[in-house]
Design goal:
- It is found in: Cell membrane.
- With 676 residues, the protein is α/β, with parallel strands linked by helices.
- Among the domains are: 162 residues, P-loop containing nucleotide triphosphate hydrolases (Rossmann fold), CATH 3.40.50; 71 residues, no CATH class; 88 residues, no CATH class; 73 residues, no CATH class.
- The chain contains 23 helices and 24 strands.
- The strands form 4 sheets. Strands 6-7-8-3-9-10-12-11 form an 8-stranded mixed beta sheet, with helices on both faces. Strands 18-19-20-15-21-22-24-23 form an 8-stranded mixed beta sheet, with helices on both faces. Strands 2-1-4-5 form a 4-stranded antiparallel beta sheet, covered by helices on one side.
- Helix 16 packs parallel to helix 18.
């Protein structure tokens, strides 16, 4: 059977100021009609470059196809002039990007942009017919009130709705091939489940082929018919999803699979992590490009590049594939790398931990933001970001905080550091009310409270050297100067696993994981008692994520840190946390020890969150349990239980009465009239 898409020995180069960079080389694969193929690999492996080359979009980014062919059905895409590509894009192949806001023009309505796309592909349609088709597409992708949404601007839609709208626009030309580049990376686990379920339905409905790019192997396991693993611009393994997960044949694939944090990961042991990081395209090693990070590398691997060998419908590029351990023996094999972290106790069963004194106590904290009143309205409206939240964080524990975007997690975290002042309520740090402290006293107290941000690049000044970034807290608090400051900074670099020789380098010279280590070094410079990690690993690849989590666990023990860990990756939050709080629309609706929360969730929302996590097992049935709808606006929350508008078990009592936050088991609290 002829393939819908055939990519043969593709090579792509980018022209830079200094030289020409070979981004991908000798890429070959095909996709059949109705098939879902996943491209996986770390950032910098060439996944997005490959997808943009198929669409011929790289030419707008100083890129060029220098070798190979791309065949879409009977059309040679590489030979088409740009003018003819316009009719091909959208009509036969379309793309869904990672960041939906970047795909829409913010000054035009959603409707005008979708209808323009529809009429571009079918000029016989009138404006009215195109608008009706746009509304039908929005309804098909699960957007309620499509006629209203067509009149709205991109900034008025949530991330999940905007992603659905972008899928609707991609479907407007009825393409045979849909390329989805990390379409769920920035989304909550519940919205991610909705989008993935939608893609599965669209595949079945239109017999559409999908090329899905992701670094989440759980998503790949649930979605893919076949998986292609890329590393440093080359394909290193390609096979059916079931075969790849049960018997990987390349050490890099094995490392990625072992790095996955799951709901079954042993919390008493460090996570498995691949050492090092993916090389830059200007500094590719000779021989096998993975050999500097591979535990099975030999002298042959350093000299000669292995060819992509094919056996029984599978492909891999490794000199020693036949000598790799069987799946059942992987745990006993020579490890790729494991961060030297002391084994920690099962914290949920630690009575001493439960009886520890509180480091932070939050009492009835509320944060409301005033909305600007319109010229005609005298009524002032408020966004209820956090509403009457109370809990404690004990000394030495890690308290996890989960919930969808808009639930108030980050706002609550910033109030703990008093970066945001509560509208009402009290935050106590070591029994000291932070609200009573003056500016200078609060600054002194902040030595003991530090934060790790989500974006390791945006949180540091790109014009400063690494040594100045990490050493700035010493200057702010008048601690160390000159040689003493440099020695202390170099000690911090060693502590977070970086070589002190990087002191005089700039942030852009480092990978994402290395930049996050720099941010962590800065955060622990003053030896704080409390660390707030706000989505600190959510933007990282699975292997780098494991490295950073292990580092945080090691630092927690060495420095006796107390942590608030905010995240939407529930499997990661479970692994690092002693207790977990679940937030929904500004309210804390459940708190429980980590294992208890995941084994026996008492709130329907918590159960829905857990059910939405993709499982890295391709043998599981391909369906995603999702919560219907999206989180309501915090400016107009529902009456009674705020989750009732999306809860399948809601009753009349839920609409009339706000549930009390009560204990349903040891250390287990929930706000639900009828807990599970």
């Amino acid at each position: 059977m002829s393939a819908l898409l055939s990519v043969d020995q593709l090579g792509v180069e980018f022209a830079t100021i200094r030289n020409v960079v070979q981004a991908v080389s000798d890429i070959s694969f095909s996709i059949q009609a109705g098939e879902i193929v996943c491209l996986v690999g770390e950032s910098g492996s060439g996944k997005s470059v490959t997808s943009k080359a198929i669409m011929r979009l790289i030419e707008h980014e100083n890129g060029a196809i220098t070798a190979g062919t791309i065949q879409l059905g009977d059309v040679d895409v590489t030979a088409l002039p740009q003018q003819k590509l316009l009719s091909l894009r959208g009509k036969r192949m379309a793309m869904v990007f990672q960041e939906p806001m970047a795909a829409f023009d913010p000054v035009f309505t959603i409707g005008s942009q979708i209808t323009e796309t529809i009429r571009r592909h079918d000029r016989r349609q009138t404006a009215r017919e195109a608008e009706e088709e746009a509304a039908r597409l929005l309804q098909r992708v699960g957007i309620p009130e499509p006629e209203l949404r067509l009149k709205q601007y991109p900034g008025e839609l949530s991330g999940g709705m905007l992603q659905r709208a972008m899928i609707a626009m991609a479907l407007s030309g009825k393409p045979e091939l849909l390329i989805a580049d990390e379409p769920t990376t920035a989304l909550d686990v519940t919205i991610q489940a909705q989008i993935l379920q939608l893609l599965l339905e669209l595949r079945s409905e239109y017999n559409m082929s999908i090329l899905l790019i992701t670094h989440d192997l759980g998503v790949a396991a649930q979605m893919a018919d076949r998986i292609i693993v890329m590393y440093a611009g080359q394909i290193v393994e390609q096979s059916a999803a079931a075969d790849l997960f049960t018997q990987p044949r390349h050490p890099y694939t094995m490392g990625l699979l072992r790095s996955i944090t799951t709901l079954d990961s042993d919390r008493t042991k460090p996570l498995y992590a691949i050492s090092g990081s993916i090389p830059g395209m200007n500094h590719l090693p000779l021989g096998c490009r993975f050999h500097p990070r591979c535990a099975y590398a030999t002298e042959l691997c350093t000299r000669e590049t292995p060819a992509l060998e094919e056996r029984e419908g599978r492909q891999w590029a490794c000199w020693h594939a036949d000598q790799l351990p069987e799946p059942g023996d992987v745990g006993a094999a020579k490890p790729f790398h494991e961060v030297d972290v002391h084994q920690r106790p099962a914290l949920d069963d630690n009575n001493a931990k439960q009886e520890a004194a509180s480091l932070i106590e939050v009492r009835h904290v509320t944060k409301h933001y005033s909305l600007q009143r319109s010229f005609l309205s005298r009524e002032r409206k408020w966004i209820q970001a956090v509403d009457d939240v109370s809990f404690t964080i004990r000394k030495g524990e890690t308290f996890g905080l989960v919930g969808e975007s808009g639930s108030g997690k980050s706002t609550l975290g910033r109030m703990l550091l008093h970066l945001e002042r509560p509208t009402s309520g009290t935050v106590l740090f070591e029994d000291q009310d932070l609200g009573t402290l003056s500016g200078s006293r609060l600054r002194q107290q902040r030595k003991h409270m530090q934060m790790i941000f989500q974006d390791p690049h945006g949180s540091v000044d790109p014009r400063w050297k690494v040594g100045d970034i990490i050493g700035e807290p010493f200057a702010v608090h008048g601690m160390r100067k000159g040689k003493e400051k440099r020695e202390a900074t170099e000690a911090l670099l060693r502590l977070v696993g970086l070589d002190p020789s990087v002191y005089d380098r700039y942030p852009h010279e480092f990978s994402g994981g290395q930049r996050q280590r720099i941010g962590i070094a800065r955060a622990i410079a003053m030896r704080p008692k409390f660390l707030l990690a706000d989505e600190a690993v959510s933007a990282l690849d699975v292997s780098v994520q494991a490295q950073i989590i292990n580092l945080l666990q090691e630092l927690r023990q060495q420095l006796d840190l107390t942590m608030l860990f905010i995240g939407h990756g529930l499997h990661v939050v479970r692994y690092v946390s002693d207790r977990i709080g679940v937030m929904y629309l500004g309210k804390l609706i459940e708190i429980a020890p980590s294992e208890q929360l995941f084994r026996h969730p008492a709130h329907p929302y918590t159960r829905a969150l857990v059910s939405s996590i993709p499982v890295p097992d391709p043998h599981r049935q391909r369906s995603f349990k999702t919560i219907e709808g999206e989180i309501p606006s915090p400016a107009n929350p529902p009456s009674g239980c705020r989750f009732r508008t999306r809860c399948p078990a809601a009753t009349a009592r839920c609409a009339a009465e706000d549930p009390l936050f009560r204990e349903v088991g040891q250390e287990h609290f929930v706000a639900c009239h009828d807990p599970l």
